[in-house]
Amino acid sequence: MSNAFDFIIVGAGSAGCVLAGRLTQDPNVRVLLLEAGTAREPLASRVPAAFSTLFKTRHDWAHQTEPEPALGGRRLYIPRGKVLGGSSAMNAMIYMRGNPIDYDGWASGGADGWSYADVLPDFVRAEDQARGASDAHGAGGPLRVEDLICKNPLSAAFVAACEEVGLAHNDDFNSGIQDGAGFYQVTQKGGRRWSAANAYLFPALRRPNLSVARGVHATRVVLENGRARGVEYIDGGQRKIARADLEIVLAAGAIGSPQLLLLSGIGPADELARHGIPVVARLDGVGQNLQDHPFAGVAYHCKEPVSLLNAEGLSALLQYVFARRGPLTSNIAEAGGFVRSKDGLDAPDIQFHFAAAFYVDHGFVKPPGHGFSIGPTLVAPTSRGHIGLRSTDPTAPPVIVGNVLSQASEIAALVAGVRLARKIAAADAFVRFRGSELLPGDGARTDDELTAHIRATAELLYHPCGTCKMGKDELAVVDPELRVKGVAGLRVADASVMPVIPRGNTNAPTIMIAERLARWLAT
Ligand SMILES: Cc1cc2nc3c(=O)[nH]c(=O)nc-3n(C[C@H](O)[C@H](O)[C@H](O)COP(=O)(O)OP(=O)(O)OC[C@H]3O[C@@H](n4cnc5c(N)ncnc54)[C@H](O)[C@@H]3O)c2cc1C
After folding, report:
1. Which pTM does this prediction carry?
2. Mean pLDDT, residues 403-423
3. Strand runs (DSSP E) across 386-463, as ranges?
């Protein structure tokens, strides 16, 4: 490995892969990419329907929150990819940008230059849309976006049932209009996952100006006279330092990036003092403003043997191996929709994730037989959590306080979401399939009973963000050019810079953020 670099990027996840791939398009720019994960592309990452088998393996950081006060003291599991591609190598592949109103909100909240009109060209630039280019979509970009190859009949029933109960059909959630129900598009190419590593990093691996160090754990940013000069990391038990002539970009994700800033002496003074870390830059927002999308379980037994349980059979395996077709190409959450939980909202606050399978406790609990799940997900949460250090040991998992569903209005929105999910499941389109209700179950009918069900079972939908937010207020960690305030030569570009969580899944927005920074750094 060369030891002269212009840029060091920490984390080869969704954002880090974009930056490494884009920056090294210029042969004169030397980049070092540091990644804690060791694997290039585990088989369970490649095969779409297998992603949840990566949970709690060595490819997963497997974080968890502290006991959540509003959820009966339960700790919530937060999977995060530890592999090339990061979380995009183990996600559910739904391609979703969020609602235009989200980005307009970022801009009016102090993230100048991040309105929907500003960010749309970067979404488009990233995209290789199988349906072709249009005003809203790009073709020929690195990130392949396709329609599902194999649509489960239960997912089709869900889409039909939504229409029966009055939801509009939505054939493209990324057109600028989210409301309605339909099939999701996925980040896949020809039946295999198309992670940020597939899209941006793997094509760049042969470039002589790109060095990728796998299995190395970054421990802190090396700062000299208020300027970031390098990154310290552990490699095979040894501490090493790599230096950058130009800039260091943290792309370690919404949990890793604030942890690294804190370990480097950049953060709230009291948090640093608690751990005896000298303050290099006081930034009160580091680790604050944590947001994610909580969802409630609604699940039914299925009378016909058509669910994705069949993806586990021999015929599905043969179909996949020989033709890259069949149920193993499924992203599990094949269909969904966006609705407003009450009148007067200016955008949807509930997203449905429909799975043609049981999805109980992240798939760890497997009820017998065939089933289907409708996950009402709160996409405009108002609770805010925070991340802090557990100790100065950089390999110790940080303290994550979610404060999930701590607001009564959030529970009320999810209760409305569960009621609508039940209405959808009761529609004629499901008559052939609908067996008894597993969740919430017959015992949960009143608002109080549904609230108790939500508090007992709600989980997070894998979208942590906001912990190094961009903006201009006192909690902003980075400015709208993603520069860490008060520290020269250091930026953050990943899901942590989102000031407010978008309405929808967060992979495409993270890639958009990194595309923007890559464009700025290249000019
Ligand atoms: C199970 C699951 C399902 C999801 N489903 C969807 C979906 O269907 N659609 C969607 O849009 N989004 C989905 N998401 C969310 C989406 O994948 C993430 O929002 C996105 O990948 C975040 O990108 P990132 O670059 O911020 O972080 P990550 O992709 O998590 O990348 C961070 C990288 O930094 C590395 N790292 C961290 N700390 C260190 C350190 N100290 N030293 C070295 N390396 C380090 C990590 O190993 C990782 O590779 C899902 C996520 C998960 C986990």
Report:
1. 0.99
2. 98
3. 386-388, 399-401, 434-439, 459-460
